[in-house]
Design brief:
heterodimer; A: about 190 residues; mainly alpha; 9 helices; B: alpha+beta; phage-related protein like fold; 6-stranded mixed beta sheet; 5-stranded mixed beta sheet; 5 helices; 17 strands; about 25% helix
Amino acid sequence: MANENNSDLDTLIQDKIDADTEFQTSLEGLEEEESNRLISEKKSELVKQEFASMAEAKKKADEIATNQKIRAEKAEQEAKKAKEAGAKEELSSADTIALIRGNISDEDIETVKKFAKNEGISITEAIKNDELKAVLKVREEKRNVADATNITTTKRGSTKVSDETILDDANKGKLPDNPEELARARMNIKLKGK
Amino acid sequence: MSANTIDSKTYRDKYRLASLDSLLRVALVAEKICEVDRSDSKTIQNPYGSQPAAVVQAIAGTYTPAAFTTTDDTLTVADEVVIGEHIYNFEKLLSRFDLFANRQDEINNSIKTAIDKWVINCLCEDGTGTYSTPTGGFTTAANINVIMSNLLSKVAGYADVYRGLFLVIESTDVPGFIQAQATNGFNFADAALKNGFMSNYMGVEIYVVASGTFVDATTTTASGTKTWTNSGHRVFGVKGVTTYACPRGGNWEEKGVTGKTGMEVSYDAQIGFKVWATKAALIVDITLA
């Protein structure tokens, strides 16, 4: 293997010397001894350069490998931390019971968890917190208003009070808001022959 | 339901207006046979042009031009229907709904009758068509078909007949119609709340008013500024060719007065009527023989 590498190196050096036209030109007209000496010096110089280049490449490769290893270890650690954090956010049995007893709506559970996390207190303690109670009350009122508001395209039918009921109530002193309704009810009853 | 009470004047005023409107809509004969104008107009102008007459002649290429002229025709609101009464506190009419509503019905009926009487008599007086019935008038069953066919011939062929035809009779005339149409069966039991509409007979809508509606009167409390000679008359014609005007509907007022407990209640409505000159022949004044 070492001989193969040396042979490859010799070939590489020889190719570089042959390709260096300027160096070849400088050898023309020189004595053979002088020419061999210069070639030998050139070879030594090129070998040194080649080794330096290889050392540099190895250094860079080592550096890249080290960086990759550091990144991989860091990512692994973060994943481990996230997993541990997720495990910590899951509700305990005590928290679950507290949420049930506190009659906390599904939509408010996240709010309670966030509050407890921000305040650094447990879910059970958070539910007893007056500030959180106020927040939950406001949210509940908003939900109640939204439930009572007709948000569909279908109009809700109003309860139709019969003419007879309107008139009976009027005779008892309970008059409808609109006097026209009362007049119409009386006329309708007359038209019906009652 | 809320805490509304008949003790509230505002509530009473609104109820009065609504109840009278309801009654007039379903009970007034005038609403069915006339055009009704409720705009703010004190007068309604309806000028008409002279009647063009086309001529057919032997070919000559000449013609004789006629002068086109216009004639003014105006409805003027010059009469009013009024009613007023004082209601003492001890009568409880303004504090108990049943008492209040019943009294209001009486007042409304009185107003309705006055308006109908005024409009129908004006209609009978101003129509230029004339017809005299056979002896016995409408009370003789055998006369009915004769009378109706003759009346139809008075308006047949005119463009406005498509609006429909009407005949206004008094309740005393009803027996003749019933006998004439015994096989068909009449239903006029609730005619009073169907604008007096009793039935259709030969394509004519028969409206019934109370006995004594057609009267002679000279500027009386029934005729206002008008003079009528309608006793023993009835009226037939084409619907919608006359105008009954009642600007702004009517006004109710309720006010306390010095020296008396309770409230004074009044109603006033201005009314006008016109049989337009170009259509006057389509209203037939029937004389009963």
